Amino acid sequence: MTQYIVTGMTCAACQARVEKAVGRVEGVRSVSVSLLTNSMGVEGDASEDEIIRAVKEAGYGARPKNGADTKTNNDRISASQKLAAEQEALKDHETPKLVKRLAWSVGFLLILMYITMGHNMINLPVPAFLEHNHLGLALTQMLLALIVMYINRAFFISGFRTLFHLNPNMDALVALGSSVSFGWSLYVFYKMTIMITQGISNADIMEVYHSQLYFETAAMIPALITVGKTLESLSKGRTTDALKNLMTMAPKTATIERDGKEISADIDDVQEGDIFVVKPGESIPVDGIIIEGESAVDESALTGESIPVDKSIGDNVSAATINQSGYFKARASRVGEDTTFSQIIQMVSDAAATKAPIARIADRVSGVFVPAVITIAIVVFIIWLTKGAGTTFALERAICVLVISCPCALGLATPVAIMVGNGMGARNGILFKTSESLENTGKVQIVALDKTGTITEGKPEVTDIIPAAGVTQTELVTTAYLLEARSEHPLAKAIVDSMDEQPCPAHPVTDFKALPGNGILAKQNGQKLYAGSGKFIRTVCKMDSFIEQKEHSLSNEGKTPLFFARDEKLLGIIAVADVIKQDSYKAVKDLQNMGVEVVMLTGDNEQTALSIGKQAGVDRVIAGVLPDGKESVIRKLQKFGKVAMVGDGINDSPALTRADIGIAIGAGTDVAIDSADVVLMNSKLTDVSAAIRLSRGTLKNIYENLFWAFAYNIILIPMAAGLYRGINMNPMWGAAAMSLSSFSVCMNALRLNLFKVHDDSHDKKTKHYVTLEELDNININTDEMEEKKMTKTLNVEGMMCEHCEARVKKALEAVAGVESAVADHNANKAVVTLSEEVSDDVLRKAVEDQDYKVISVD
After folding, report:
1. Average pLDDT of 87-103?
2. What mean pLDDT do residues 826-836 have?
């Protein structure tokens, strides 16, 4: 997407005009114009010159936002220059000008109002040469009105220019209303001069002076609209605060090591592979990997979490996060626009440049709104004349219609809420890639969750320590550590990592030997030590009923029991499992309370999947599903409603792409996931419900804004036309109402800044949500995925855990002709799906090369 700054837009009609003009350029696939940020995003092959020319021919100005395509021409502009361009684009240039214009307008308007109301109504004193000098007073009013109109000449220049282009905007309504008032008053002024020359009585001249002059209206209309524009500009500026605050966090310099010395360098001079130094309190300049030292890092700029994260050697650190305590060195892994922080800014900026589908309603209305209002004003004027009303009254009604009508509120209703919603998401580590994804996330009815790394931690942890009768926990744990410390198996690492302190044995462990598919054998002080599966340990010692019962219950819970023995004596069990995250159960309940049906998809065996699903509170679990199978399941679920897929964004990319909303969770080190619509910077599953909650809150705010914008015009235009009996509105009140309408829409959108994304106290089920019973009507068994394919089942001996399953799976899928493989260590089976005939011997060899034994192939 190439982004541009567009100048000269003042209302929704301008926005629609620019979109229409650029959309006609050959090679433009899509265009989105934001009145809120005065920006335009264009996708396609059209050149910059053609696009800028089209905008200028429409009566506006345009220039590239960064001087280059934000995606493909990054070599033409550095990261800091691009950031500066983004900051300049968001900088509030308009408000200071409006405040200055308003101050001058109010100054001269007060003098004018002193004459028209102070002197004429309550007889306040005026200079002697104006006393009883109605012609002089009228001339003074005319001059003051001209000054105020000149101060606000931007309305007239823009308004009449768009009129000449036959695409009138809001400024055209202001310009017409003020000009007609001034023109009529000028006619009345000359009429008064004729009356004086004809010797008409002073009382009659006074009657014309008091009842037919509208110089104060001609001045009041642009002045009051400027009041509204100033308030609107101030509130619009606040809607981009989140993005501007993000940009101010960007580091400008880095301390890097060059030739053994620490030097301060500009952030653009840091190269990938450079060693940089970060001291306590400093901002981390680029993404990197710690190679020396440790610290606690405040990552709130990225994740919204205020609790510091401990970092040590080998850990990743991200740009714009704050080093709170220790001193460390890191090697730069991502610099410039590739850093996580830069991509977040780009993502939020791109989202602001896109348009939500709901905005098209207002766009269609805005495109015809101003011409329709001008037509209504003319019709109102003619009707009142034909009904016998005086010209002055009919003109007053027509002017009221012109100045009270407001397309701006319609144009701002959606983008201001979208901008604030996107900013709120960014502050909480929830990144919506487009405005459409922000709108549609709240509409999801089914959420499909990947298991590993989404519901679970994604790494094995010790869950249970069960000593055998007559054995202390210390003896069991010490023996386990001595055996597993020298093993490279992932389950062994989980046991070692669980130890608070490393035991110091009285005698060393010798003759260490790994027995693939079975376990470990070693010696200590002449005694044999064993570790492994229940099947292996049963060959060296007996198990009592208590231990066998524990083995069975742990397996049913999806845990892997590891047994330990010394000589012929069983020491006990240590169970290891990929445990669910602390917030998984609450996250699932939150989704269910919001009327969202939760489905868990996993490639694991059914027993493990059901156990995890039960712990997490998921009612529907689909096990043994491969990445392409997940995509097929998502497609079938979509028959019942809008589906969101939550995964890691890499292995689940087909399903993320297929889903109505793809949500990548735990992507804090890589936000550039093309397959996802929403990126959650934290690994918290509760952020999924928070994203849905924020989307619903934003959509509700948009509906409120649109209701107000439409209701305002539907109610007040007839009132201005004089259709409500007994109500004759003054044009000045019409201008005041118009000026406040846009301001009220912006202020309502700013209420979203108070929205609490993790507060579930106001959650409600949507009116049309999917029930589990409805899902039961669809067959989404993994063996019915579009077509029948050839399968073979291998009976494998020696698999002990999920990691053994993964090893067998990887070995089988490396065989030519094997499309996919699913291994189950509990059933001691591996099922392969074949795209072509593969001999049993080839499959057997692939598994046995990994030190597992194949009993048979069916």
Report:
1. 77
2. 82
pLDDT in tens, 212-241: 788 888 888 888 778 777 776 776 666 566
User: What would the DSSP string read from start to end of 170-210?
Assistant: HHHHHHHHHHHHHHHHHHHHHHHHHHHHTT--HHHHHHHHH
Residue 90 — very low, low, confident or very high, per pLDDT cuts 50/70/90? low
CA 270, 273, 275, 278 dihedral sign is positive
Six token digits for residue 22: 């650029």
Q: Which of 712, 776, 32 is nearest to 355 (CA)?
A: 32
Average pLDDT, integer, range 737-748 = 78
Q: Which single residue is written with the structure tokens 């549609």? A: 440
- C-alpha pair distances (Å), 373 with each of 223, 401, 481, 577: 21, 7, 82, 68
- Return the DSSP state at 700: H
Cα angle vertex 774, ends 771, 778, to 5°?
A: 135
Over residues 762-811, the pLDDT tens digits come to: 888 776 666 655 555 555 544 444 444 578 888 888 887 777 887 888 88
Give the sheet arrangement for strand 678-680, strand by strand.
430-432, 678-680, 661-665, 643-647, 446-450, 597-601, 620-622
Place of tokens 């089942």: 793
**What's the rounded Cα separation, in Å, for the pair 345 and 247?**
7
DSSP state of 118: I
Point out the residues that are catalytic.
450
Name residues whose C-beta falls within 8 Å of residue 688's C-beta, 6 or more positions apart in sequence.
447, 587, 591, 644, 646, 663, 665, 680
Least Cα distance to 252 among 278, 286, 276 occurs for 286
**CB neighbour list of residue 651: distance below 8 Å, 6 or more residues apart:** 450, 627
Assess contact for 411 and 366: CB atoms under 8 A.
yes
pTM over 0.90: no
Give the SS3 label for residue 264: strand
